[in-house]
UniProtKB/TrEMBL annotation:
NCBIfam families: S15_bact (TIGR00952)
Originating organism: Deinococcus marmoris
Key word Ribonucleoprotein present: yes
Gene Ontology biological process: translation
PANTHER family linked: RIBOSOMAL PROTEIN S15, BACTERIAL AND ORGANELLAR (PTHR23321), SMALL RIBOSOMAL SUBUNIT PROTEIN US15M (PTHR23321:SF26)
Family note: Belongs to the universal ribosomal protein uS15 family.
Protein name, entry field: Small ribosomal subunit protein uS15
The UniProt record lists the keyword Ribosomal protein: yes
Length: 91
């Protein structure tokens, strides 16, 4: 089970920040890790696998937005959460 309040406090920019991109990515990462552990034990849980794919896609879109808008924060967040990042696409 994830400790939502602790995760929000660890990644919030201010006391009332609960919905910034960094907080959303951190919460999704915690849920993804939790579900990944569940799926390691329950390999036939196809509905859980679909949920994991949806959460990974949502996190990927949020990280793409963060990379586009605030690259330094993106680097810091991916390092802190130990998320692999692809090559930066410069347009």
């Amino acid at each position: 089970m994830i400790d939502k309040k602790a995760t929000i406090q660890a990644h919030a920019k201010s006391d009332k920040d609960t919905g910034s991109t960094a907080v959303q990515v951190a919460l999704l990462s915690a849920r993804i890790n939790n579900l990944g552990a569940h799926l390691a034990e329950n390999k036939k849980d196809k509905h859980g696998q679909r949920g994991l794919q949806l959460m990974n896609g949502q996190r990927r879109r949020l990280l793409k937005y963060l990379e586009r808008t605030n690259y330094d924060e993106y680097i810091a967040l991916t390092d802190q959460l130990k998320i692999r990042r692809g090559q930066r696409i410069v347009r």
